[in-house]
Amino acid sequence: MSTHDTEINSDATRLLGLEGVSVIKVKDDGAGGSTVYVVTSEDSARACPSCGVFATRLKDYRTTAPRHLSCGGRPMGIRWRKARWHCTEVACPRGSFTESIRQVPARMRTTKALRRAAGAAVCDGSRTVVQAGRDLHLSWPIVQHCFEEYAAKALPEQPQATEAIGIDETRRGKPVWKQNPDTEKWELVADAWHIGFVDAIGGRGLFGQVEGRNATSVTDWLMAQPAAWRAQVRYVAIDLCSTFRAAIHRALPHAAVVVDCFHIVQLAQRHLADLRRRLTWKQHGRRARKGDGIYTVRKLLRRNKEDLDQDQLAVLKSELEYMGTYGRQIHAAWQAKELLRDLLSLAVTRTHLAPDHSAISAARYRFHAHIADHAHLPELLVLAETVEQWWTGIETYLTTGITNAASEGNNRLIKLEARNAFGFRNRANQRLRSRCATTRRSRREAHPH
Ligand SMILES: [Zn+2]
After folding, report:
1. Which of 123, 237, 358, 366 would disulfide-bridge 258, Cβ 3.0–4.6 Å?
2. Residue 95 sits in which domain range?
3. What is the pLDDT, as a whole number, of residue 96?
């Protein structure tokens, strides 16, 4: 600055890298760090914030210490000697003002670069707010604020276009109960269920999350998205949840529901276990214990056909045969599960692109014919009914290969994020952090630095 007669150190200025100021000198602060003395170099700092006219009448100087990133791993304190100016414009209501630069706007005590680094550490670098605060010597509220500011810019405002989305619900933390002082009844005041909306095929993570677990929560979120975005969603992957199915039909009437195959197999396994327990009670009048044939094979029943070797298959068969009628019925239930898995294995994959419709109808027929032969087993009937109720969704899975695996992957990331932060007390913050965590990879791929 012309008003300053001290010489500027251009090398140190370059090293500091703080736009708008020039370094005069650097001193040891006597505590392992350095103190950097700077003056204003940005011309526009002299412009009156009210009228915009460049001031020429100097009032006085004052020194501030804005916080900045550390330099070369050493703590660094900045002493910025900034001028105060008189505004001499007749029409201007402002008498005087202090210089400000873009990196350090008026009344800010941190530089933009530092605030950005704090925000990026949490949003992109998966640091917790506490960790980032410790690294950058900032308080928790400041880092949290920087993070929110950064995330608002880094996260896409609208979900990116995709042909397929996945919807699922997860419990986050514990439900909160409170006693109503009037009725003395305990009421659920906060139920930490979140419904997540993810990109099912593009790997771009979580598009959004809402609290709740009913159809309205799903419909509301979907309807809040731009119509153009909704129009290009052709598939929605869900688990066997009729509430979600109804919500999708309402909000995205043109989209097809895809049933996640993982949940169908899980359902078949549950029915098989129920049947095994029921028949074991019938046979023994108690739970299975060591020495019972069913005890020997109960672990084998949980496995898939292809994971059993010839000996294990033989043991499974002979032990169940030895049990008599109940054993044969358990074997029939295991076969039903395997027939359902055979059907689901016909889904298209990346290497096997064309759906084989005749193979699908043959496998579907085999599954139902097998259950018709064992129609006296209620567990199998319920399974067959569920498969029929959801057939359209299952068939869409078989012909598209779309799953809700993206939701599962995101849930793992979200849990990890929550564990690192020792849980979240604020749900909105939790949702924001979850979105950052699940979109990190795709954001990095879109803007690699
Ligand atoms: Zn002015």
Report:
1. 237
2. 1-108
3. 93
